[in-house]
Here is the input.
Amino acid sequence: MSHSFQNIEFHPDTGAPTIFLPGWAFDGRIVRLLKPAPNWIYPETPLDPATFKQDLSQFLISKKIRKARLVGWSLGAMLGLEFAAQYSDLIEALVLVSLRAHWPAHEVETIRAEFSREPEPFLKSFYRKCFLGEKEAYRNFCVTLEPLYIEAIETNSARLQSGLSYLSTFKIPSPLPNIPIRLIHGKQDIIAPVNEIAKLPGAEVEILHTAGHFVFMHDGSTLQQEMKKRVIQVKFSRAAESYDNYAKVQTEVARRLAAKLPPAHKKPEIKTILEIGCGTGNFTALLAARFPGAKIVALDFSPEMLAKARYKLQGKAIDFVCAEGERFLQEAQEKTFDLVASNGSLQWFAEIENALHHIARILAAGGSLSCSIFGPESLKELGQGLRAMQSLAEGLAAHTFPQRERLQKALRSYFKEGSVEEELVEKEYSSVHDLLLHIKKTGTAGWQQNMQRPLTPAGIMRLNEWFDMTYGACKVTYQILFLQGYN
Here is the structure.
């Protein structure tokens, strides 16, 4: 094969792996600039249109990957679309980023002439245009990847020329593959102008108004949301072994939520239950005890957490499903469940309103939602201490959790009745180190990378002193929001 793919480890229970196809003059290593880094498979060299499709099909077969998702960028989006049209049985879904419907031949020939005449200055100028609007990413690129790309100009010249020839001859395949397709495009893109975006019937279209050609870094992008979820998933998976020993607050909240569930003898119509984010199965056990005759579907996106729950509750009438919650809700059939429950999970969702809409949609007539969510005021004392030390308090995961008013508004929009009740759980830890250990061992640090960056041993000592002076001990408050919705 002329393409070498970086084979990132993936767990078969988490669904189809993602394969990233880079744009012209880039290779797959460009994903290393993304923060958080995605768990994608990618080619280590620029794409060669002449051999790409054959090489990718052989790679999928050799790795026994029955289905994959393709994320293609610019040239990679074109090749990805063609590959999916020819090998639709191997592709689960397509995400096509910065896909231009057509490159005029004269424009391509101008690029070819300038590249052939002065390849290094041309590529540097081209890269700068690709990163317009992304200064930090561009600075990182200039330090890390650009020198490698410039050094390899002679080696990759034939592939780059082949890529230009492909751009000028590309046509949207017909018929299109019968799989989900999403188009993502930056409105400020000067490489592939948004008014020239490919028109694909039935495809979802996502336009990012402040993004250019390199749209991956934008928080509004569904790809960026997906990357954040992947980081959260990894942290929960790593914490599977230690979770039960450290999740004292989550266990307390589970008991409080269970107490708010209707008694089984008063709600005999509850025969099907969906639990979102079952973790190691602690709240699942409470559900099974409360509704012994009901069929429970327990959902979690961490295979390691799910394995713990499955072992703990073996023999129970519970269907354990490894899936990402928001996607599961979008794809679930209407009026499927009598009760949807969740303990401390929905705050991690990217679009909570959309999730509540789908929960209402899949509830049967008379069905109900009962869940707990950690609110944005959780660990406010830790945030105060970090700000007092001029540290990065905004790195706390809780700062991104939905406000009570936002949740109340969504419940009123999608349910016949809905309420949000607030309760506070106060917890004292022996030290700041103990508090941070609990966060780490339960996997609840979120996707943010910067919370613990300034917390050196000396910083932790100073934060301990701040807690002692301010609160007399390392005391923190967890804001718990209990959501109830009725159809």
